[in-house]
Amino acid sequence: YFDIVISQGFLEHFLNVEQVIEKHINLLVKGGILVISIPRFKGINYFLTSFFHRENIGIHNLEIMEKNNFLNIFNVKGLSTIFCDYYGTFSFCLFNTNNKSLKRYILKFCTYLQLILNAFFYVLFKEKGKESRFFSPNIIFIGKKE
Fold this sequence. Notes:
Elements: E1 2-8, H1 17-26, E2 28-39, H2 44-53, H3 55-58, H4 67-72, E3 79-87, H5 103-112, H6 114-125, H7 127-130, E4 138-145
Parallel strand pairs: 1-2
Antiparallel strand pairs: 2-4, 3-4
């Protein structure tokens, strides 16, 4: 058993997420901390993923990529929520392309513009531009095993 279990970019590949979460919880000692984060292919990220590498959409459970849906899957006996929210500033690093696609050059160029784009989001949207359901590339849950 462990004091902390961290899972990143794993859960979104399953449809039976409740069973997968249960296995994570079973690895924890009483009072242990569970941290699960997943990428978000929703909002603008959905459209960009569709453009850069449409095949990635089909291998992800998009249902759990909304905050309320994500939080609800952790509503299990013996687990209390510490934190659950969108996190991260918009990032082109979330996307990938086929190595033979010409879109890889567009994506590479966009990653160079990343800092300017994030500064623009911050000026335009203030705190809401940094982490929001529209732009954040990730969602995270932190909970404690009772």
